[in-house]
Amino acid sequence: MTLALAVDIGLALLVLAVAGWTIAVRDTFAAVIGFVAYGLLLALVWVRLAAPDVALTEAAVGSGLTGLLLLSASARLRHAKTSAAPPGPVLQWAAGALCILIAAGLAALVLLLPDPAPTLAPAAVAHLPATGLGNPVTGVLMVYRAIDTFLESVVLLPALLGVWSLASEGDWGGAPILRHPRPDGALTLMAQVLPPLGIIVGVYLCWNSADHPGGAFQGGAVLAAMWVLALLAGLVDAPPIRQRGLRVLLVAGAAVLLAVGLAGIGLAGAFLAYPEHYSKPLILAIEMALVLSIAVALALLVAGPPVRTPS
Amino acid sequence: MISTTTLFGLSSAVLIGLGLFGMIVDPQPLRKILAFNLLGGGVFLLFGVIARRGAGAGLGGDPVPQALVITGLVVAFAATALAVALLLRLFQATGQTALDEAPPPAPSVDP
After folding, report:
1. DSSP helix/strand/coil, B59
2. What is the ipTM of this complex?
3. What is the CATH number of domain B4-94?
4. Which of A44, A177, A187, B33 is most buried, by CB atoms within 10 Å?
């Protein structure tokens, strides 16, 4: 057994152990901490699967932002009565049998995967020089499957609208509050020291994604985390959601992508096609608009519905 | 000898089973949301295994499924944020965190 395989086996066992603990542990707060650890371990697995772009997203979005969201929710629900009883033993056993059946079916599928595996890697690489990009994942996101990226940048907006629409009567147009009830020295210090570095990392991840791992989603998630940190420490206040500048910023990414896509019909013969020789600057412009919109949308999704009555 | 992709592929199958079990059995909605995300992590990992198996042309993996997972992670986060907001609003409005309980005798007026 090689050393790399030994590390992989250890990593897989660790992921499964943390996942099992997260499901089994009684205390919800502990389960959320377990989930954050699970996400970070999964990011390591993604590195082992030669997918650094996904590893960055998993660490930033899957573990970081989702963990933060669940943490603040578990803190708010701490004193909620948990009177709902777990299902009876028969249903538990039935659920367990069903889950084992599904897991076994998937495991069989994994063992029976076709060999050699079907792949689009050669096709993705063959056309990459024409796009001016060096990172094939960015090529898929911004060129080959730009329609997915467009729809994804749009889907964040109805999700945010859904969260906002849960505001109480009279709070619509106000500002969400995401302040820690008792921000202490450590949180304040971190919120003062980390954002300058985090903003550089976020912009770097996006700017450099043409040739290196990263992209608008990873960069946007890091920028969002920095804003959320400052909000938590009470150093800044969230803007009222009726603010026009905020709304423009939220739709900027999707709007720029749509505008370039529509221009592509005239200039390059297809929706979301880039005119030859201009693809790289156009992609960078789209990503810069996207990173801002994504950062604002993700942070506001964490912040929740507005609660302050507009003055 | 087991390969890295088979190892993580089998792990993803177990993670999906675990997440589904937690989602069905745990009565607390927040734990259901958490288990759903754990299940999602397993599904994404299965995608990653299939991407890794498609390595070729000098790449460590097929970039198409990798890009799909990046899209999926962000959408999963947006859905989770909406679910958490719904749950917190339910708690704020009724003092309950479960749907199948009897409503309180005098529901609090919307603040």
Report:
1. strand
2. 0.90
3. 1.10.287.3510
4. B33
